[in-house]
Write a structure and sequence with these properties.
The protein is built from 13 helices and 19 strands. It is globular, with a radius of gyration of 25 Å. It has a six-stranded mixed sheet with strand order 6-5-4-1-7-8, with helices on both faces. Helix 1 (3-17) packs across helix 2 (45-51) and helix 5 (110-118) crosses helix 6. By secondary structure, the chain is α+β, with helices and mostly antiparallel strands.
């Protein structure tokens, strides 16, 4: 069975368990960049997850009751003139056949059909608040149905958030998704290796960004999964550095956080390496602490552990390393409880990864009662994909030894939780300091 059809069936069952109704999921709108030029189009992840359909101006409607369900795609009509200008369109008939919908209609019929489909239904399921124009359209449809009250027609009495249902589906990757994510990881790994080999003093950060994107494209990816971070020297201490315009300097480190998107799925890799191919003593000291922290996080990534456990394992190593370097004071438990380490490590060790680089899914265990003031963290299960990305960021300051000034280090890999542990999808990029130096000097 096609994965998109299977996902729609699973969502249909979740809607039926909640009493039935009509689900309305729209794809993302096109966005004007300036005047009549558009930003490159990227569909809505929820819509694509359920349809596999990549054209703009499309809406999925699932009508569900106790006796059955119907799927409808509303999409653009075939139009020879527009296809000359903008490219191929499936049109409703071919879209229905290729993507397995029960019905497909022109997007121009959406406002006419939706009040009819919503009539006498108990609830509507949609992405509430995701797009104000879509919310307004839903309000118009509901008001149209309410206007038929004297004829004995009732409007949906409840509105449910559809994303909360799909989030849990997306959190556990199926074999189709895992295969794509493995390929995306391989492409991104090759790009990072290319960037390491291309690094040398005098080049600009954006030149290394170009090396990454060249490899993404040559590997079959159409775009980065997010804005690439290519941060040299002190810029590596800026977590979401975006300028990518500085010149690489002898003796500095270069932090690259970049990954491609392939067939709608993200990869996410960070590597930090010396511009000139050799770590200095202080750089190597901090680098080895971060690498050990990542190894501890990976060891804690296995079924039955909580989402927070890899982070806690990494923090323990990072805090002890900072104590050993004299950057914070011990003992270890006090340094962790006081948060002293957060001056140099201020983010979590990972996040969900999938169609979005910061993918959907609750980080707390749904349905599990709170202990004290907060709900327990999510239990890791096979099929989940998380990142493992500890780091240290030491900005120049009067109380920091000069040899540690402006050193920013992060090491990040993508981990698929398996039945017995985890599989590192992005392991084809060297990360041991000796291996990085050997690669850059080969």
């Amino acid at each position: 069975m096609h994965p998109y059809h299977d996902r729609r069936q699973r969502l249909t069952q979740l809607i039926r368990e909640r009493g039935g109704g009509v689900a309305v999921i729209a794809t993302a709108p096109e966005v004007i960049r300036n005047r009549d030029a558009h930003y490159p189009y990227r569909w809505d992840s929820y819509f694509y997850y359920l349809t596999g359909f990549t054209e703009p101006e499309a809406v999925l409607v699932l009508s569900v009751d106790g006796s059955g369900a119907e799927s409808r795609l509303f999409c653009r009509d075939k139009n020879e003139e527009r296809e000359i200008w903008d490219g191929y369109r499936f049109g409703p008939q071919l879209a229905r056949e290729k993507f397995g919908f029960d019905h497909a209609l022109s997007i121009d019929k959406l406002d006419e059909e939706l009040p009819r489909l919503l009539a006498d239904r108990p609830a509507i399921f949609s992405a509430i608040g995701a797009d104000s124009a879509h919310d307004a359209r839903i309000a118009r449809w509901l008001n149209s149905v309410r206007g038929q009250a004297r004829a004995g027609v009732s409007a949906p009495a409840q509105v449910f958030e559809i994303r909360s249902l799909v989030d849990d589906m997306r959190l556990i990757k199926d074999s189709h998704e895992i295969d794509i994510m493995r390929r995306a990881a391989d492409i991104s790994a090759a790009a990072h290796v290319r960037a390491m080999r291309a690094s040398r003093p005098g080049r600009f950060e954006f030149e290394l960004e170009a090396e990454l994107e060249h490899e993404f494209r040559m590997g079959g990816s159409k775009a980065p999964a997010y804005g690439s971070i290519v941060a040299s020297g002190r810029h590596a201490c800026v977590l979401h550095y975006r300028a990518n315009d500085a010149r690489l300097t002898e003796g500095e480190l270069l932090l690259i956080d970049a990954g491609c998107e392939l067939d709608g799925y993200a990869s996410d890799i960070t590597r930090t390496f010396p511009v000139s191919g050799r770590f200095s003593g202080a750089q190597r000291t901090l680098y080895d602490i971060v690498l050990e922290a990542q190894q501890a996080a990976i060891a804690a990534t296995r079924p039955g552990m909580r989402f927070i456990d890899p982070h806690n394992a990494a923090v323990k190593v990072l805090a002890q390393g900072l104590i050993d370097c004299g950057l914070i004071s011990g003992p270890l438990d006090t340094a962790i409880e006081s948060g002293a380490y957060r001056r140099f490590y201020m983010h979590r060790t990972g996040h969900w990864l999938g169609m979005d680089v910061h993918d959907c899914g609750d980080y707390r265990e749904p349905g599990e009662p709170a202990t004290g003031s907060e709900k327990p963290w999510r239990i890791l299960r096979p099929g989940m994909v998380i990142t493992e990305e500890p780091g240290l960021y030491v900005r120049a300051a009067d109380d920091i030894p000069r040899h540690f000034h402006d050193i920013g280090i992060r090491i990040e890999d993508d981990a698929l939780v398996t039945e017995s542990g985890c599989e590192i999808l992005t392991g084809k990029v060297p990360k041991a300091a000796n291996d990085i130096e050997a690669l850059m000097q080969s």
